[in-house]
Design a protein that fits this description.
This protein is α/β, with parallel strands linked by helices. It is built from eleven helices and ten strands. Helix 6 links the parallel strand 5 and strand 6. It starts with 14 loop residues before the first strand and ends with a helix. This is Xylose isomerase-like TIM barrel domain-containing protein.
Length: 359
């Protein structure tokens, strides 16, 4: 069932609603055209395109090609897929706003691996130029083992600067993952972006990653860090509002976290950080308390949106156990949940903004 879009209010015009394709189902289970249809029919205006979805779509083009050539490479089929995806989105009134995630790029100790990533980045730039007229490539902070990457900030800055130069004029957004090996807070990512100082380099702010790092502990009986977590989060949000240049914020991502049993097997996957396991299995759309959402997402979103005065794309990025279910209805169900969540978060932000103006 599709959730009917709510007529836009004056507040809606500040931000444009979007959704990540990963939030609509697993790439190997749910086709990208089905996801695009679900997003469009449930009021979304933009898509964060996950490369896994693009690659799966490219493979489907290869399988159905009447005169498939063994000489054609995966990259060539991805170029075909990019053209087809743009056409699909244009017909449905959607804009591709980002291609992601370009993982494990910065700080690589092996120069050959770094060279390979630069070569892959050039391919992503080519894809981006086809997919849209104004999109960016998202680079999440690396969570490789410390034996594979450096913590040298100067080197990390140089790597992001190189990525921006290679991609230009395509933009690059850098995002701090809560489980990043060395870069795991918005402060870390903003420091690197500020120091790299490239006009096409900015940051992505993610409510889940911010709250997960500063406030949450899914393996704790309370689900949270120390009693000082609220104070620490509040102080960090005050710094964010004071320090971050909103013109360098390329996107704000929204997601909550599910309160799970600390004994949940997925939290104890050998060799995987708990926050990463939790993120991949138990994100929720904002304001889904009825499903177990409990992070202070509204506080983080209020700082990133109202506090900063940010205007632009706001995207739902949810990984969960439910996206891995094989039911064909998953894209529709998740798109409808995202639409309800968007209206709920707008109402909460409106209340906070009104309260602030009444002080």
């Amino acid at each position: 069932m599709h959730f009917p879009p709510t007529p836009p209010s004056e507040l809606d015009t500040r931000w444009m609603p979007a959704i990540a394709t990963v939030s609509l189902g697993a790439a190997h289970l749910h086709s990208l055209p089905a996801k695009i249809d679900s997003a469009a029919q449930n009021g979304q205006r933009g898509l964060e395109l996950f490369h896994d979805d693009l690659a799966q779509f490219a493979q489907s083009l290869r399988r159905h090609a009447r005169h498939a050539s063994a000489d054609r490479t995966d990259r060539e089929y991805e170029i075909d897929a990019a053209h087809a995806i743009r056409d699909l989105c244009t017909k449905r009134g959607l804009q591709v706003l980002a291609l992601q995630p370009f993982r494990h790029y910065e700080g690589l100790l092996d120069p050959n691996q770094h060279a390979q990533r630069i070569d892959e980045l050039k391919h992503w730039v080519e894809l981006s130029k086809i997919l849209g007229d104004d999109l960016f490539i998202l680079i999440p902070s690396s969570f490789l083992d410390p034996s594979q990457i450096t913590d040298d900030r100067d080197r990390l800055v140089a790597d992001l600067r190189q990525a921006a130069d290679v991609a230009f004029p395509i933009r690059i957004a850098y995002e701090a993952l809560a489980w990043g090996t060395y870069i795991n807070t918005w402060e870390d990512s903003w420091d690197i972006v500020r120091r790299a100082n490239r006009p096409n380099l900015g940051i992505c702010l993610d409510t889940f990653n911010i709250a997960a790092r500063l406030w949450a502990d899914p393996a704790s009986p309370t689900g949270r860090l120390s009693a000082h977590a609220d104070i620490d989060l509040q102080a960090s949000m005050q710094r964010l509002v004071q320090e971050v240049d909103p013109s360098r914020v390329m996107m704000v991502q929204l997601a909550d976290g599910e309160r799970v049993d600390p004994r949940s097997p997925f939290l104890h996957t050998p060799g995987m950080p708990k926050l990463l396991s939790w993120s991949r299995n138990a994100r929720l759309f904002p304001c889904e308390e009825e499903r177990g959402g409990y992070l202070p997402i509204c506080e983080v979103a209020d700082a990133c949106l109202n506090g900063l005065g940010y205007t632009g794309w706001v995207s739902m990025e949810v990984f969960s156990r439910s996206t891995g279910e094989s039911r064909p209805s998953v894209p529709d169900e998740h798109a409808a949940r995202a639409a309800r969540s968007w209206q709920r978060i707008l109402q909460q932000l409106d209340k906070k903004d009104e309260k602030l103006h009444n002080l």
